[in-house]
UniProtKB/TrEMBL annotation:
Membrane topology: Multi-pass membrane protein
Source lineage: Eukaryota, Fungi, Fungi incertae sedis, Mucoromycota, Glomeromycotina
Keywords assigned by UniProt, alphabetized: Cell membrane, Membrane, Nitrate assimilation, Transmembrane, Transmembrane helix, Transport
tRNA processing among keywords: no
A molecular function GO annotation: nitrite transmembrane transporter activity
Start and end residues of each stretch annotated as Disordered: 1-21
InterPro entries attached to this UniProt entry: MFS, MFS_dom, MFS_trans_sf, NO3_transporter, NO3_transporter_NarK/NarU-like
Superkingdom, natural source: Eukaryota
Name of the protein described by the UniProt record: Nitrate/nitrite transporter
Domain Major facilitator superfamily (MFS) profile: 40-472
GO cellular component, one term: plasma membrane
Transmembrane segments: 43-62, 130-150, 170-190, 202-222, 279-302, 322-339, 360-381, 387-412, 419-438, 450-469
Cellular localisation: Cell membrane; Membrane
Organism: Paraglomus brasilianum
Length: 480
């Protein structure tokens, strides 16, 4: 673990070591911002963070919006469902698009297009208007795919799990940031003399502006892959070694021979282009992809569902102010500062000791404990202190499970990593949809919804035994 953590920092002036076969970086340096590797890494998580901020901007304002639009809990939950469900289709489409045109343009396009419905959400005057706006806001959830795809292009197998986990986790912090800031910004408008009717609408313009700024920056200041533009991917830099060959019969005469050293080191190398439909077919034909989709539905899917309901639950159950509920609710998202990353670190560390079996074991344990503490949350909400403690614990395991899941994804089939990333990411949204429906069903008894979801997650954890990656399973059962 200490070795993995040691790969995160270094002198920003020193170049990153790279795999000569792929030009992918073999370590991270979080205080380095130079192109191509670390610049792209930082924009990958920043783009996803900004998208998450816009995607869930409505959630911390739920008490005000419900009152202003005269919505009951069931009606507001319908808008939660549609904001998650629309992302499913967008994510599936975005995966092959990353394979075709590269992650930089895909990320920028999603941010710029997504800024429009975020800014226009304030025009909603009824349930239907809110649902239409949140349907199109769901496009921002698809930014997870270029975020992860981008880091896969930039970092080699020994560190890609950590890179994916940190980028995804820091991006998911957008939910915590929006919980923290949106109520404060709204209160600022109210203190400035605006009515609550106008204040929540004006507040939503802020994340829309951020989306535009970051989207343009992605286009102007980043690279798709180590070689620069996406069309140049796979053009590996061949190292020429000049070897001096001395003629034994003439010590004064030197012959220089030039040899090309082949790149034998294999990892998550960039494969030749694959058609979109072919990439989908290959990915969907792999049973591991289906299992990972289910697993991710029980990690990121849980996170999405909880992000949508947490502030409203705290507001009503503990009779808090909207600002206080948002502050406490922000803990769930802000845990991503380190929780998802440690899932990737643990996956990489276990892999260095046990190979792919280590990654599968980490996945099993993290998911099981995440489900266990979701189950226990039902019994912790008798006091606010108890609820916060268990909230923090299950937040850690749920989010670490996201990191450990994408510690496995790059090794399933590197040739179609974009399609696989898109499908697994879509699995997260399918889970978010299912669990949001469960929260709607238990609108009057939200703690029971947490218990039900916890049981599901604990059960799915054991599907780790069905995964077979690089020809390896978590446990082999041989006939005697």
């Amino acid at each position: 673990m200490s070795k993995a953590l040691g790969k995160l920092f270094g002198n920003p002036r020193n170049p990153l070591p790279t795999n000569p076969a792929t030009q992918k970086a073999e370590r991270l340096n979080l205080i380095k911002f130079s192109r191509p590797h670390m610049r792209s890494f930082h924009f990958a998580w920043l783009g996803f963070l900004t998208a998450f901020t816009g995607w869930f901007a409505v959630a911390p304002l739920a008490p005000t919006i419900k009152k202003d639009l005269k919505l009951n809990p069931f009606q507001f939950n319908d808008s939660n469902i549609i904001s998650v469900s629309s992302t499913i289709a967008f994510r599936i489409l975005v995966g092959p698009l990353c394979d075709a045109i590269g992650p930089r343009k895909v990320m920028a396009t999603l941010l710029l297009v997504g800024s429009i419905p975020v800014g226009l959400t304030g025009l909603a005057n009824d349930r239907e208007g809110l649902m239409i706006a949140r349907f199109f806001v769901g496009i921002l959830g698809a930014t997870f795919v270029p975020c992860q795809f981008w880091t896969m292009q930039m970092f080699d197998s020994n560190v890609v799990g950590s890179a994916n986990a940190i980028a995804g986790g820091w991006g998911n912090m957008g939910a915590g940031i929006t919980y923290l800031l949106m109520p404060v910004i709204m209160q600022w408008f109210v203190d400035g003399g605006r009515s609550t009717h106008d204040a929540w609408r004006l507040t939503l313009v802020v994340p829309a502006c951020l989306l535009i700024v970051v989207g343009i920056a992605c286009l102007l200041f980043t690279d798709d892959c180590p070689e620069g533009k996406w069309k140049n991917r796979g053009k590996l830099v061949e190292e020429e070694k000049i070897v001096e060959v001395h003629d034994a019969g003439d010590v004064d005469k030197e012959k220089k021979a030039t040899t090309i050293e082949p790149a034998n080191k294999q990892s998550t190398a960039t494969a030749p282009p694959t058609s979109k439909l072919r990439a989908f077919y290959i990915a969907l034909s792999n049973p591991n992809v289906w299992v990972l989709m289910v697993m991710y539905s029980c990690t990121f899917g849980v996170e999405l569902a909880v992000d949508n309901v947490l502030a409203d639950f705290l507001f009503n159950h503990f009779h808090l102010t909207q600002k206080t509920a948002g502050l406490i609710g922000s803990l769930f998202g802000l845990m991503n500062l380190f929780s998802r990353a440690t899932g990737g670190f643990l996956s990489d560390f276990a892999s260095s000791r046990l190979g792919i079996r280590g990654r599968l074991l980490v996945q099993l344990l993290i998911m099981f404990f995440g489900g266990l503490f979701l189950f226990l949350f039902k019994f912790a909400v008798t006091t606010l202190t108890g609820a916060i403690i268990v909230l923090v614990i299950f937040s850690y395991f749920v989010q670490a499970g996201c990191g450990s899941s994408f510690g496995i994804v790059p090794f399933v089939n590197p040739a179609v990593s974009g399609a696989i990333s898109g499908l697994v990411g879509a699995g997260g949204n399918i889970g978010g949809l299912i669990f949001t429906i469960i929260f709607k069903k238990y609108s009057e008894d939200t703690p029971t919804a947490f218990m039900v979801i916890g049981c599901v997650v604990m059960t799915v954890a054991f599907t780790a035994f069905t995964l077979k990656v690089d020809g390896m399973r978590l446990a082999s059962f041989r006939k005697s």
